[in-house]
Specification:
It is found in: Membrane. Its main location: membrane. This is MAPEG family protein. It contains five helices and no strands. By secondary structure, the protein is an all-alpha fold. The protein has one domain: Four Helix Bundle (Hemerythrin (Met), subunit A) (Up-down Bundle). It is elongated and about 65 Å long. The protein starts with a helix and ends in a 9-residue tail after the last helix.
Length: 149
């Protein structure tokens, strides 16, 4: 396996956890300020806070949710490439994807202007699409006799 292709995935995992703590660090004080008691209603969900607190408070939570969506395609893609043998272009594309997702997170959690956010999402999605195609090609056109036993 090639660790170089796994490093961007590990960084994205760490970034996702940073966003989790960012979300909690913004939301919990806002809940207290708004007088919302987390224990008052059993079964509450994050979505219940829409409209109950200022929209800006929910932006990190929205981004955290996004980090639990599309990157679920990224993680197996890099594992496939690690197993099959990632090239330099694969490693570069993986880092581009992760860098753009981090910039997207910061933008969404702070400024949240949709045109820029959409552009960041689009370019990162194109990097992921390219990685996914390369992973599919690596498996579909692999020479099984060349693989280690």
């Amino acid at each position: 396996m090639q660790a170089q292709i796994l490093a961007p995935a590990a960084v994205l995992v760490v970034w996702s956890l940073i966003m989790l703590f960012w979300m909690a660090g913004v939301r919990l004080p806002a809940l207290k300020k708004a007088g919302i008691d987390l224990g008052a209603r059993p079964g509450g969900r994050g979505q219940d806070l829409e409209g109950a607190v200022e929209p800006r408070i929910n932006w990190p939570a929205h981004n955290y949710s996004h980090l639990m969506e599309q990157p679920t395609v990224f993680y197996p893609t890099v594992v496939i490439l690690a197993i099959m043998g990632a090239g330099a272009i694969d490693v570069t594309l993986a880092w581009v994807y992760v860098a753009l997702r981090i910039v997207h997170s910061i933008w969404q959690a702070t400024v949240n202007k949709v045109p820029v956010r959409f552009l960041l999402f689009l370019v990162s999605s194109l990097a992921l699409l390219t990685l996914a195609i390369r992973a599919a090609m690596a498996t579909l056109f692999a020479d099984p006799s060349a693989l280690p036993i």
